[in-house]
Amino acid sequence: MMEKMIFGRYIPGESFVHRLDPRSKLIFVFAFILVVFLANNIVTYALLLAFTLLVILMSRIRLYFLINGLKPIIILLVFTFFIHILFTREGDILLDLGFLKVYEEGLRQGIFISVRFLVLVFMTSILTLTTSPISITDGIEVLLNPLKKIKLPVHELALMMSIALRFIPTLMDETDKIMKAQMARGSDLSAGPLKERIKAVVPLLVPLFVSAFKRAEDLATAMEVRGYRGGEGRTRYRQLKWDWRDTLCLVVFVIMTALLVFYRN
Amino acid sequence: MTEILSFNNVSFSYTPDNPELRNAVQDVSFSINEGEWIAIVGHNGSGKSTMVKLVCGLLFPQDGEVRVMRNVLTEENLWEVRSNIGMVFQNPDNQFVGATVQDDVAFALENSGVPYTEMVDRVHSSLAQVKMDKFLNHEPHHLSGGQKQRVAIAGALAMRPKLLILDEATSMLDPQGRDEVLKTVRALREEIGLTVLSITHDVEEALFADRVLFMNNGQKYAEGTPSEIFSLGDKLVEFGLELPFAMRMTKLFKDNGVLLEGQHMSEEELVNDLWTSNFNK
Amino acid sequence: MDIKLQQVSYAYSKGTPFEKYALFNVDLTIPHGTYQAIIGHTGSGKSTILQHFNGLLKPSEGQVHIGERVIVAGKKAKELKPVRQKVGIVFQFPEHQLFEETVLKDIMFGPMNFGVSEQVAEARARELIKLVGLPEDILNKSPFDLSGGQMRRVAIAGVLAMDPEVIVLDEPTAGLDPRGQKEIMDMFYNLHKERGLTTILVTHSMEDAARYADQIAIMHEGRCVLNGTPHEIFSDSDTLEKYRLELPHIVRFQRKIEQLMKKPLSKICLTEEELAAEVAHALREGRDAK
Ligand SMILES: Nc1ncnc2c1ncn2[C@@H]1O[C@H](COP(=O)(O)OP(=O)(O)OP(=O)(O)O)[C@@H](O)[C@H]1O
Ligand SMILES: Nc1ncnc2c1ncn2[C@@H]1O[C@H](COP(=O)(O)OP(=O)(O)OP(=O)(O)O)[C@@H](O)[C@H]1O
Ligand SMILES: [Mg+2]
Ligand SMILES: [Mg+2]
Fold it and tell me: Which residues does the UniProt record annotate as the domain ABC transporter (chain C) (predicted)?
């Protein structure tokens, strides 16, 4: 199940979208989340949907893969759709099954909300699917840089995040290893009453914490002897490059917003 | 000869309040000159890693002094000292800070404020020195242990260190990984005359050093050339190590009545002796 | 208890874009009472294969026989506990699995999971702590106050305490000093000899494989490409090289001596003692002939 989830995963590639600067992608996605709420009729929702499909196409991520990977979220979406159908009682009756009446307004609302939800999920997924976590971190760090003035430890937060990201695979492997080692000693994590299962978590958690602490200690030592003492006076190896693609991307975004404003009721 | 590092009667205890427990490092003195390769050998818990922590100012001695480039190591000159020392630790995973190979090599450079263009140069050239320049964008969990350790060496080299310290850098690796790392270190010694302090309990590895310190229970038991140290024979075994292969074979041959002239450290010597003593008569 | 793998393939993350096959059609039979070594380059699938020996991984294709039990690909395998009790695994860096407040409790954890009574488990712990070469008073200490080498021994005692018929070892001595390595390897060898414990050793050390094993299997890119006695395996250096493995140090040295003597010794020697005796013998014969 988890293996099939693609929400939050990164798939390397060379598409137009992959090559955008993380800053423009971040600005774009955050602005898009706000702008989505401008839509309020068929034309504007159609516009959003078309635009999202265009982005997916340009990212060269297979639609089948995207839908397959986002299945759990799509189930949620279908669920909200039916809630709206069932509970909105306005407008003409479109379908009367006796025990169930479907109203025009209900269908409209159901579709709109679903489309809104869908474009939001797709757009944010495209961001994480086409941008490596470390680039996202870089982008956030640079975008938040002005906040250093109000003493927000932007650099430290970004470093923490990048180290966390770097160690996720390592810790996942570790969890798997310890779990197997304890299973080999007869501990059973998947069966028995809840109380037993909670007890069975201790042999997993204790070693995991011990090893995480050990790693953190080693890492802190390694960073210290390599001269790390905070963000002051540091230079950056990862440089972000803003090029014509990024400008184009934002121009398109402004045009889309203008169209949305123009066509909404 | 320029002195790079020296310990003068250094003692350190993790538990100074409890005098019953022995000191982790007890009254140790030695020095390393530029261009030398020194190996420290000793059983588990003999104080080797503690000595390394004393060199880079992660710990300070309770007695005696540590000098780096002839200056006594203090809280004040700590960061300057660290910029002259490259360190590679035992666990390849826990010292990989960057998200990719090149980020990791750049980490120390970023910390000391090296400008961008120079950074790029140094990252590429030091990765080339350890033959990892084809892996610039690889992530750590896609590298083997030996490759990660070579990246760690590159990260140290990028700072142009005066001294490279390897704390059991090969002990978690498979034989191929160990070979890769040792070959890299030997090549660096030949190419740029790097000064190396390597800590190991692999005696075959110590044979390559110019000088060996033999630690036992926190004390320096002996110091000398590899042949001097290994002529201690059974003392090494008693203190948790083993004899080099050639020496074990020499002893076994003699026990079995094979004629041999002397003691041998290297296989070459042993084979030659076998030849001259037995066939060439 | 025999262990038999028939046409076993295994894929990690099967059925996803990240699917990766780590074993292909592996056939391997380990008869009861054998000391079997498994060698191979890193990533060749050694750790993957050993997790099939007690049902921690289930084959994607093929079947695994563990004594009477058969685990077949695609079929649900229920109640694996009896299998896990009979096949103990000492993973790489087993000290990472310690978690209890005291060493005693940690050693008792395994047996008690398999329904052994507290008294029996404690008795086993007291016996085993000596067997792994630690003083008995260590039983009341916290495992986290011990040195690395001591923790390793406690973890090993914890697996032996389950009283398994088969013991599987994944690089059991990595990171220890030479004496620690030798003591642990000798301990397992004695257990194998004295109690007839089937022993499966995964190792990078050709020397250990040569010295201790009855049978050596070579893994290469997910396939089991060879299985034979140490003499068979180490008499063919070209094949080994093809699988990116080396001859044991002792055999390489024998080759050098043979070049010197311009004739081969009568057999391949797998231990230093054996080689010294053999060379002495050959030299004496040479002298007598003159
Ligand atoms: N953080 C610590 N707190 C308390 N005691 C410690 C600490 N680190 C090490 N020691 C103790 O100090 C002594 C020397 O340990 P050190 O790690 O220097 O040994 P080592 O020679 O590096 O061993 P190894 O070969 O296992 O790496 C040991 O007895 C150890 O138990
Ligand atoms: N959890 C996992 N998910 C995906 N692939 C894996 C996983 N574990 C191992 N692999 C892959 O399976 C292959 C075999 O790995 P395995 O750990 O069995 O090798 P090994 O022979 O034990 O190597 P080593 O000598 O380094 O321990 C490798 O290519 C490895 O990358
Ligand atoms: Mg150490
Ligand atoms: Mg393995």
Answer: 3-246
